[in-house]
Every structure is written in structure tokens, then in C-alpha cells.
């Protein structure tokens, strides 16, 4: 067995992330068993994140030597961004960062679920504190919505949760015909 893929308790074990490959996206295929779904607003945020920060995490794949293809285990949405975003595809020269694991199908399926579930969810109270801190730092509502990936209603709810609602108490608030990207809660 390859020394990179021995059981994790072995002294010679080395995690796949230390051997990331730049793989042409055309050689990567989705698996048929990933139950993870990402809503359009989060996909837009993922595309922005990859544009602003680059690929900071490789996708996880199984290499099928017989087909000369990499089957995704984790990272389908990062892969999808590379396939669908022209600006990212061009900047990355069509290459997807991939860490390869050698596991049979049932273990790959389990890995997919573990990766998905290990990400967790955002805590509302912590998110509202982040919004409060950004507001205190005089970041505009438009900036917060764009960089954190939220709409105006979510931003308003998070501000209210942190007690920033008192800042709105003597202000008139109306969305009128304003575009979501240009709305600001002026204090």
C-alpha cells in the first residue's frame, strides 16, 4: 500500500493535503451520491469567496486510473464554480486543486457525509455579533451584504438581535423602490 494512504495510526501516514495536485477540471467528475445542496445566494458567495481569496481548500477526489478521471468526494460546489465562472476558470487556467484519497466506494460515501456534516452551520448569535462589530467599524450595510453574503432582511434581523435595533428607534425606515444592492440603513 502507498505510504500516503496507510491507516492514520501508522507512523508513516501522511495526510493527502500534503500532496495537492492541480488537475484540469475536465478530468474531474461529480459523484452520484452527494446529498449536499447549496442555495443560489450561497453559491454566489462561494464564487465571490474564490474570486477574492482564491482556492484555499482543495477538493477531495478518488483517482480512477482505468478512466483517468478524478471522482469528487468533497468540494463539488468549489468544482462547480470553476466550471461555471469564466473569470475564475481563466484565472486558474482551468486547474482545480485536488487532494486524492484511495478508498473504496462505501468509504468514499462515508467521507462525503463526514465532510458535509463536519462543516456545521453558523450560530445566529455569533453572526449577529460579527454584524455588530462590522457596523461599529463603520462598514456600510452594502459592504456587509456583499462581503458576508446576506440580503437586507437578514442584515436587519441580525442587527436587531444584537441590540442595534435601538439605533433604529428614532429613524424612519423604508425600503421603497431601492435596489437591494444599494440599500443602506442610515443612522
From TrEMBL:
InterPro entries in the record: ParB/Sulfiredoxin_sf
GO biological process, one term: cellular response to oxygen levels
PANTHER family: TRANSCRIPTIONAL REGULATOR, TRANSCRIPTIONAL REGULATOR-RELATED
Protein name per UniProt: Chromosome segregation protein Spo0J, contains ParB-like nuclease domain
Amino acid at each position: 500500500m502507498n505510504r500516503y494512504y496507510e491507516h492514520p495510526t501508522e507512523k508513516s501516514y501522511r495526510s493527502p493535503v500534503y500532496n495537492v495536485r492541480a488537475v484540469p477540471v475536465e478530468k474531474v467528475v461529480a459523484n452520484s451520491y452527494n446529498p449536499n445542496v447549496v442555495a443560489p445566494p450561497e453559491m454566489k458567495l462561494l464564487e465571490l469567496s474564490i474570486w477574492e481569496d482564491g482556492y484555499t481548500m482543495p477538493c477531495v477526489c478518488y483517482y480512477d486510473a482505468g478512466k483517468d478521471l478524478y471522482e469528487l468526494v468533497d468540494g463539488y460546489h468549489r468544482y462547480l464554480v470553476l466550471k461555471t465562472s469564466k473569470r475564475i476558470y481563466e484565472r486558474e487556467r482551468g486547474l482545480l486543486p485536488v487532494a486524492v484519497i484511495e478508498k473504496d466506494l462505501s468509504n468514499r460515501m462515508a467521507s462525503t457525509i463526514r465532510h458535509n456534516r463536519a462543516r456545521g452551520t453558523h450560530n445566529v448569535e455569533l453572526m449577529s455579533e460579527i454584524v455588530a462589530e462590522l457596523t461599529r467599524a463603520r462598514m456600510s450595510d452594502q459592504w456587509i451584504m456583499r462581503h458576508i453574503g446576506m440580503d437586507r432582511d437578514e442584515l436587519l434581523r441580525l442587527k436587531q438581535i444584537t441590540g442595534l435595533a435601538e439605533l433604529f428607534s428614532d429613524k424612519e425606515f423604508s425600503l421603497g423602490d431601492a435596489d437591494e444592492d444599494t440599500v443602506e440603513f442610515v443612522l
